[in-house]
Write a structure and sequence with these properties.
By secondary structure, the chain is mainly α. It has 3 helices and no strands.
Length: 62
Amino acid sequence: MRKYLFSGAVLSSLFGAISVIRTTKDGPRDWRLVLMWVSWAASLAIAIGTVADDEKRRELTQ
């Protein structure tokens, strides 16, 4: 769990969520808001997948 929380990619994605949450709270509710949430979810999934892939690669080289 620690490797995910301290990963730069995951941290960046989590900080990106702050922007999406603020836009959701203050901005207009239209199709662009849905795309922002989908984009954020995809970036979080990619970040988590990258950390998992790096960990597998480390295990194979040891």
